[in-house]
Design goal:
alpha/beta, 2 domains, 219 residues, Rossmann fold
Length: 219
Amino acid sequence: MNQDMPIKVILFDDNDMLRDSISMLIADTEGLELKGAFPDCTTVLEDINSTMPDVVIMDIDMPHRNGIEAVKLIRKNFPALPILMQTVFDDDEKVFAALKAGAVGYILKNTLPSNVLYAIKEVYKGGAPMSPTIARKVLLHFHSDTDEDAGNDYKLTIREKEVLQLLVLGLPIKQIADKLFITYDTVRAHIKKIYQKLHVASMTEAVAKAINQKLLPGG
């Protein structure tokens, strides 16, 4: 991707006021380009084909087809397209259903505009941003798993589990490197190993598999 080009974004949300608000935020931000804003996902694949976005922002509860079903459809047809969920819901079932379906990030609709913009840029760069309350739910989900052998089937090292857990919490590679006191390239090397061991091809798949199979034991 050409970093000099604006990040092309499309939005699906049935709330007219919120859709207009986010649309204006994106349209008025340098480095972003709003390619479309839609009230439902009835023609989601056609909408993506006609706009060719770099990032999709997806609501969950919409008429005709809900956001989680739309995410599954997008992931099947556009596997590399990052999807950022934005919703008023923070209940566990919807959080994990969205991530399992293939969403990369998950932020709440009361998120500050600056954090929305940060999340868009992070998913575009390969990150997995989440609102703090969502990240906490994910962390507690792992802490509820007391199986000390969790993740052993994939033979993840202690360091690889640390990197994977930080990826699940939405930290970008640079922050992971800083937090673990290792280099950026070392983190990338660990991520490559994680992909190989989990038999996945993307961060989205790695995060979804970690959550779905409870690969990270509690601290």
